Amino acid sequence: MPNFETKICSRAELQARVAALPKPVVLTNGVFDILHRGHVTYLAQARALGASLVVAANTDASVKRLGKGDDRPLNSLADRMAVLAALESVSLVVEFDEDTALDVVLEARPDIYAKGGDYDMTAIPEGQAVLAYGGQVAAIDFEHDRSTTKLLKKVRAS
Ligand SMILES: Nc1ncnc2c1ncn2[C@@H]1O[C@H](COP(=O)(O)OP(=O)(O)OP(=O)(O)O)[C@@H](O)[C@H]1O
Ligand SMILES: O=P(O)(O)O[C@@H]1O[C@H]([C@H](O)CO)[C@@H](O)[C@H](O)[C@@H]1O
């Protein structure tokens, strides 16, 4: 197993693994199906807000419930987590099967919760929870006009 895969942790281990990370801890979540420049730039910016970055990845079943398409995700959870773990910006990767990452946030209690600028941090349960316990939230502006959905459209049109 490549060394970077040790960054993948189970939900049961999450609290203990987060406690061992350098602080401040930043947490974000998402699907990260076909990784693109928008994702990696955003993850590097999220990591730069603190000393460690935890990424919670949606399970395949929870991606299906998001309604991105019957064929999504293209990459399985195990593959998406391995690709995320290989990034320099990422300290820890954990899966979540719920509709939102609220419970992951309450278990990990990050100092900072980050999400792309397409989200209103005060309107999403993860952002509301972090603000309620006195943590910080950060909405990171999009720097590159990229998305997994756009990439798929390009591939299918060719
Ligand atoms: N181009 C981008 N720039 C900055 N952040 C991004 C960009 N695309 C996605 N993100 C952020 O990355 C996280 C994961 O996004 P997601 O996997 O939904 O990306 P996506 O490519 O837009 O996917 P999809 O097309 O399947 O909706 C989210 O927090 C989102 O805000
Ligand atoms: O990759 P996406 O579609 O940006 O990730 C989703 O983010 C949602 C957000 O945190 C608001 O709650 C989350 O609920 C959803 O499960 C995906 O992770």
Automatic annotation (TrEMBL):
Residue span(s) of domain Cytidyltransferase-like: 27-131
Top-rank taxon: Bacteria
Broadest EC class assigned to this enzyme: transferase
EC nos: 2.7.7.70
Any one GO molecular-function label of the UniProt entry: nucleotidyltransferase activity
Catalytic activities: D-glycero-beta-D-manno-heptose 1-phosphate + ATP + H(+) = ADP-D-glycero-beta-D-manno-heptose + diphosphate
UniProt keyword terms in alphabetical order: ATP-binding, Carbohydrate metabolism, Nucleotide-binding, Nucleotidyltransferase, Transferase
Protein name: D-glycero-beta-D-manno-heptose 1-phosphate adenylyltransferase
Organism: Massilia haematophila
Source lineage: Bacteria, Pseudomonadati, Pseudomonadota, Betaproteobacteria, Burkholderiales
GN (gene name): rfaE2
